[in-house]
Specification:
Keywords: Membrane, Transmembrane, Transmembrane helix. The protein is mainly α and about 140 residues long. The chain has one domain. Helices cover about 85% and strands about 0% of the residues. The chain has helices at about 10-40, 45-70, 75-105, 110-140. Helix 1 packs antiparallel against helix 2 and helix 1 runs antiparallel to helix 4 (about 110-140). It is elongated and about 55 Å long.
């Protein structure tokens, strides 16, 4: 059975983190889409487009991860982990490159949502990878 007693709480915790991360990314996605429309000629445009694309991709992979966790399908969980690693890396690069540039151009630019998104992404990555390792150990032996 997929829901072994010893992994119920870690699975629920990781799924809650994935849903929370998806909610933050969805909110950031909506914010980015409205900013893309409003500021297509400004320096915010590249930041918004990158944010829009990466958040959209990770939201799609979040559904795959939840199904993978429930069914203990390692490939689905591994695909999600690779996607979230790329997502973390792209968020950090965007933060360093675009964030510093946007601070110079528009000192009022709000980074709080981006910081919250990065924190939830890193927490999700950490706990999902720990769950993946525990499931691998159980399946091996």
């Amino acid at each position: 059975m997929c829901w072994e007693t010893r992994l119920v709480l870690p699975k629920i915790a990781v799924m809650i983190l994935i849903i929370l991360n998806g909610a933050v990314d969805s909110f950031e996605l909506c914010r980015s889409s409205t900013l893309v429309i409003q500021v297509s000629a400004s320096p915010h445009f590249a930041f918004c487009v990158v944010s829009f694309v990466t958040n959209g991709i990770i939201i799609g992979f979040s559904f795959i991860a939840i199904i993978g966790i429930i069914l203990e399908k390692m490939l689905m969980l591994e695909v999600f982990l690779v996607a979230i690693i790329i997502h973390c890396f792209s968020k950090m690069v965007v933060w360093v490159v675009c964030g510093n540039y946007l601070d110079k151009v528009d000192p009022r630019f709000d980074h709080r949502l981006f910081e919250i998104g990065l924190i939830t992404t890193l927490l999700t990555l950490y706990f999902a990878s720990r769950l993946w390792m525990r499931i691998c150990d159980i399946q091996r032996g």
